[in-house]
């Protein structure tokens, strides 16, 4: 019988300002009494060993997902989008949102015995924005150029200042990207944090990283002294002793181990494998807020410099049919650069750019691509209408199938797409200087300020190489505006700008699909669908 599917959509009204990341999951089990048990979590995690064990530096969602077991945050974001105490007991925000003053708990220690205090907050935040750290995402979440420093007021009071109003900071301060390492580690071993490991990845969290075999497993052992997590369930140490994270990139392996009982939890289960799971397995699906899985069209490199070509590209893909067939109706087709569960989502864009080959052909004719070669590919000035799509490996089967559908649809209108599947090093060689026509990814985040990274002239994820002063002004005004209604209006303009300009082609809004075995009780998720283990028992 099919597994139960619990689909949780995060309501727009319930989620307040934010920005961030996401993904992956667990493996082998053991019996015994709750309290001494081992929980096995099977995750995808293929690139963790490539220097992505440090969420303060890595842009991979999986980094923050697994290291949340070790790294605590100043505040916790609840399901309704509000913020509650964590390592900070209270906070004050200046009227202009340029200063955030936190009162810290005075009973928190790192698992190496170091004290958590205001100096530890300053050391971590200053490390994130230090150019030598080479942090992109976390530094951006900390305000980047807006960050004006962290001041130690006294041992347990710290003030974080910005040069201009910075509305998304509380949400950023709730994420593992702005979580805290031991000051001793930062002083003695900061250069080893990307690789991670026992004695290196040291935080105040409910677990301590005690074993790490790259590309195989991470073992976290309960922090028996833990008593400062968010909410009532976090006020005590975990109920189980060992969290064993098995790294299994193949989805079929992850579903296999959850069915066999070798794993208690499996993350990133693809929709096509859900129906085959046993009825005893619960399947939870949480739609990510953020930027949907999308294609980024590089307008400074080749044929995508022409807006009509970009528009034709988007109208020439039968997104609805491909997404419905490949994702079995589990993932909704996307219409905007904000997913439908993200604050500020503009629902008026739904249905405004449907699949229309006639419209696409007309646009390409108007752009001068009227001739055809022997293969049926359009020609102009002796050149083929051909673009090169670089993709980061490993590539899941579902996205490979989606790419094939896109290539096939576009070929019908004489538009050739050549896809190159590249190892991370080779990918970065082209991504850095932007020597490609298009690339792809999705990005989870609760606060739409992540669009500044993707669409601002100076955005570190501006793969489309957009540079529009009017758009920059919208994004800059939005990050500096505290009123949520005013911010929503600004982000509506940004979404409508992209619908016309087509720098990004959104395809679908993914969900975090987690398969949960019978032994697991009390599992909850954060707003990104990442498992939270504060009240979990096994057995």
What does this protein look like?
- By secondary structure, the protein is α+β, with helices and mostly antiparallel strands.
- 25% of the residues lie in helices and 23% in strands.
- The protein is built from 15 helices and 26 strands.
- Strands 1-13-22-12-2-11-10-9 form an 8-stranded mixed β-sheet, covered by helices on one side.
- A hairpin with a 2-residue loop joins strand 16 (378-380) and strand 17.
- Helix 8 (307-315) runs antiparallel to helix 10 (357-366), helix 9 (319-327) packs antiparallel against helix 11 (397-411) and helix 14 packs antiparallel against helix 15 (484-501).
- The longest helix is centred in the C-terminal third of the chain and has 18 residues, at 484-501.
- The radius of gyration is 23 Å and the shape is globular.
- The two termini are 23 Å apart.
- InterPro entries: Peptide/Ni-bd, SBP_5, SBP_5_dom.
- It holds the Pfam family SBP_bac_5.
- Residues 1-27 form the signal peptide.
- GO terms for molecular function: peptide transmembrane transporter activity.
- Residues 83-451 form the Solute-binding protein family domain.
Q: What is the gist of this entry?
A:
The chain contains 15 helices and 26 strands. Mean pLDDT is 91; it is low at 1-35.
